[in-house]
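Good morning,

Both structures are done.
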Amino acid sequence: MDTNIIYCGDNLEILPKYIPDESIDLIYIDPPFNTSRQYEVFWGEAQERRAFEDRFGDVMTYLDWMRPRLRELHRILKSTGSFYYHCDWHATHYIKVELDRLFGFDNFQNEIIWRRTTSHGDSKQGARHYGRIHDTLLFYTKSAEYTWNTQFVEFSASQIKQQYNKQEKDGRRYRLVTPTAKKPGGDTSYEWKGVRPPKGRFWAYTREKMAEMDSKGLLYYSKTGQPYIKYYLDERPGVAAQSLWTDVSPMSPTAKERLGYPTQKPLTLLERIVNASSNEGQVVMDAFCGCGTTLEAAAKLKRKWIGIDFSPTACRVMAERLEKRLGLKEGIDFTLKDMPKTVDQLHRMPPFEFQNWAVVALGGIPNKVKVGDYGIDGRLYLADMAKEEKTVKRISEKVAQGMFETLDKWYPIQVKQVDKVGRPDIDKFETAMRRDKRLKGYFVAFGFSGDATKEIQRAQKVEGLEITPITVEELLGYEKTALD
């Protein structure tokens, strides 16, 4: 089985094709939530925007869509593996019933509540419900034997004040813990410095261990002579993480890791899950990996990983993220597989996805605004603009950062996901070219009508406007030639 790979496609097709039974150690998924909303997503790093629609109608339709995917995920999970389903209030309880049937109720380990924000606009004055500020993570395993590494969180100020309420002369804080226990075991009722354990309790340590702790100054004696063990704050790992997560901050609007994906989760959230439920070298999968947070966490923590997403734009952003944030190289450290390669696949692609693909395949930069773009979907920058730069990719990054906005050496690109572009479409593109004072441009579509071709010829002969029509089939040929 290949790992460190991003598959582009429907996970219901990818999983049975590539992933064998019981081969994955940890699966985390954050699938669409059945929110009946449409997201217009702006991809900050790539200057892209795409349509993400998680509309399934009623919850039964959503469950019908998820059910075969959950069966596939259960199939590929190892008997010692763990599974996390990230969801919100829309379908949590329905999903839990499905997972109970699939994994078995006894293998349900936790309902984790993550406070993703401190307040929400849906609780403003006039709202008829409490503010919805949390997500739910349903944690299942496939058996009673599974990987588990306890995670710790920092002590709160109130915990420190209440529990570690004693200090050494140097300011070192500590708490006192009794060295007794309820159950006896060995020599546990001896007298220690004139004191025996309280009635009904026994020493938890041998005489030798008590003597060792005493010699190291780790025992504290009360006025009655009763010993206590000193637990120093700076030696404690923290408090074991509980099922309520309030210490993982939500994504800040200014966070460096933010990519503009509407349901992007913070890296710290996935790091906790990956650390807790897998070990180095094990395989982590995210079958709805969006902008790739799970993949970054897994790679950063030295796990093998597999990601799947239907969106070519998302897969491209994931690849860029792994390169930019972790220094991984596509084709060397990881593979991007099954990107759209046929005319039929491109016909079925969501409009914004198709638009992004066409502009990038042509070598251009997609507009960061897709709605109201006034007839121009992307820009193709001239080669002489790269004289002071070593690669076209670096030029693209500069453009995305707005550093070349004043430079005038670019060609407009228009994209239409139609079988045949008509004369009106060409007229609109000509108007956009005149407005931006462009004498040359590119138009990508599946085909062009006779009237469209005649207008392209007229515009060049009469007005000097050079429009190059490119079919999708031709563009696929360009990509293949470039790869060869």
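Second structure follows.
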Amino acid sequence: MNRRREWTARAGLVAALCGACEKEVPPPPPPPEVKAAAVLVQDVPVYVEAISESRGSSEIEIRARVEGFVETVDFKEGTQVKKGDPLYTLDPRPFEAALAQAKGALAEAQAQHTRAKNDVTRYEPLVKKNAISREQYETAVALEKAAAAAVESAEAVVRRAEVDLGYTKVTAPDDGLVGKTEVHPGTLVGRGQSTLLTRISKIDPIHVRFSIAEKDYLFFARRKAEAGGTDPAREAPFELLLADGTVHPESGRLVFVDRNVDPLTGTILLEAGFPNPKGIVRPGQYGRIRVAVDVKKGAVLVPQRAIQELQGIHSVAVVSAEDTVDLRTVKPAERVGSLRVIDSGLRAGERIVVEGLQKVRPGAKVRALPATLEETATAPARTGG
């Protein structure tokens, strides 16, 4: 009886276990959702970029040319001045006295010359009549020539004194933007050296100096040779990117190329000029200058954030027609806004994951929601390699 009960209990336990085995297994989780977009294909200009510093198209240092005390500063700092506008006045009294003294010496020399000339005129008929010796006549002629030379010397001293007196009025030698004054009324200037008073910069056009790598210079040099001597860089329009990320509204042209490549840095100095009618760009500003040197036809572009990098290897997640993911190694190149040119590894028409990269694994199935590169290219990126 007890054995029958035991078998009955065992049979019930087996039946219970079998019933549990017959319950349905829960379905697998759905594939992760990601945003995928077809790569963008378009022609992309290739730029050469460099850090730049602006300077005036002409930079003039205003210096004291005579020694004296500054009486007045006749301009407002940081304003536009015209050629001939007064800038400084130095104490003119010592130079007026020197000029008066020089004029007195000139008058004395002229009187001596007149007397010597009269002597020659008076002696000339007398020497013909042998009324005086020829030696006396020749001495008078020599004295007349010496007196004439003394007059010329005195006249030169007067002109020099007039020039020095003129230097007490310091005027603008050209139009431009005047900087801060380095001296103030009462300052002694010009003693032992030509004291710097202020600077004037012509800022329309504004010039920008920058250096490019030797390899970029060689690229331009070869293009110039292929063009039969015409310089493509000089004809190409330059763009100036300011410190706040905006682009200067006027395009520039190359105006200067240095004679040599710097052996320490392997770069060559260039200068471009930009119209600056509103005077927004000032000397000393830093920015980035760029010029298009080529065009990549049918370039493949993807968002910068869609590119993963691991130990120098770049890859993107490609979504197949069956919505499975393949991590593809790519070779990125230039940046265009928030997009990046891909030189190899992708083809036109392929889809890549642009959002949700952390959810995908190679070979995994995903639920790809459509997106466009315009929708994903909202974050700005620095232009450059």
